[in-house]
Design goal:
This protein is of the alpha+beta class. It has one domain. Helix content is 40%, strand content 20%. Strands 1, 2, 3, 4 and 5 form a five-stranded mixed sheet that branches. The longest helix has 57 residues.
């Protein structure tokens, strides 16, 4: 019986293939983590956009309430339920108020998990140039706060209005 002589292999092909597979696996994992980071960035950007839009709508609702006069001046004296009088020595109201409670006026939105809210502060009256000193104008600051669909991305907007005393 004749013995068949096989050449000896050193296994270099196997080692090279394993190294290439390892490099490809590392690249695939990096690409996957990069794609998931991009997805998070896109989701956060969308959440911030929804937050800004709901906050802007709440601010618009508060400004309309001031312009239309749908409030009672006594509400500001009570300093509650969304109507406040400025207290210059206190911390800014929008930093201390509980926006989810009835201390703020809840605005209507249907998509956000937490509704946007606003407060109206009565500031000291002013007399604009050319106006009689006996009829100073009322000044109001409307502050609105909203969050995105996920409950994050809080946005705070303010508008100051001068309403003539007719």
């Amino acid at each position: 019986m004749k013995k068949i002589h096989m050449p000896k292999h050193r296994g270099s092909t196997l080692i090279i293939t394993l190294v290439l597979m390892l490099i490809l696996t590392i690249l695939a994992v990096r690409e996957t983590s990069f794609n998931s980071m991009l997805t998070r960035v896109a989701t956060n950007a969308g959440d911030a956009l929804v937050s800004f839009e709901t906050t802007e709508a709440a601010l618009y609702q508060g400004v309309n309430q001031v312009i239309s006069g749908k409030y009672n001046l006594n509400d500001f004296l009570a300093n509650s339920r969304g109507f406040y009088t400025l207290k210059p020595n206190d911390a800014p109201l929008w930093t201390t108020i509980n926006w989810a409670s009835n201390a703020a006026i809840q605005a209507y939105q249907s998509s956000a998990s937490v509704k946007a809210a606003y407060i109206i502060e009565q500031l000291p009256s002013v007399t604009p140039p050319g106006q009689a000193m006996s009829k100073p104008s009322f000044v109001y600051r409307v502050t609105a706060r909203g969050v995105g669909v996920s409950g994050g991305a809080a946005i705070l907007l303010q508008s100051t209005l001068v309403v003539p005393n007719n």
